[in-house]
Write a structure and sequence with these properties.
single chain, 124 residues, alpha+beta, 3-stranded mixed sheet, 3-stranded antiparallel sheet, 6 strands
Length: 124
């Protein structure tokens, strides 16, 4: 009886170790994104949300301000398409939709061109 029980126990252990991976689906790579404020304005709020989500989630800056010339690291972000909203010192809101955060480039730059492009966008 002892000889037959040992292979059964090994088989059960193997199933328990492998089964979670079979049902979890593929894991997404995770990256660190550096957000650099190259604009002429301070950024007071920054929200990053998966493009397929209806919720913005929490402000990535919390109580901080991303001043001109400063940068911020968003750590351990799953590779995906994101909508990004930032609000500058004047309260101007800019939303960039379906931005892929996972390319080889791990730096995302906020520029005057982006801010001014959002300010003049009348498609809403």
């Amino acid at each position: 009886m002892k000889r037959n029980a040992s292979p059964l126990i090994l088989w059960l252990c193997l199933v328990l170790l492998v089964a979670p991976g079979l049902f979890a689906g593929p894991k997404k790579s995770r990256v660190t994104i550096e957000v650099v404020n190259e604009s002429s304005w301070d950024i007071h709020h920054l929200y990053v949300s998966p493009s397929d989500s209806d919720d913005w989630g929490s402000d990535q800056l919390r109580e901080d301000i991303l001043e001109r010339g400063e940068s911020l690291e968003l750590i351990d972000i799953p590779c995906d398409d994101y909508d990004i909203m930032f609000i500058d010192e004047d309260g101007d809101e800019c939303i960039l939709e379906e931005q892929t955060l996972c390319r080889d480039e791990s730096i995302w730059r906020i520029t005057d061109e982006e801010l001014l492009g959002c300010e003049w966008d009348t498609s809403d």
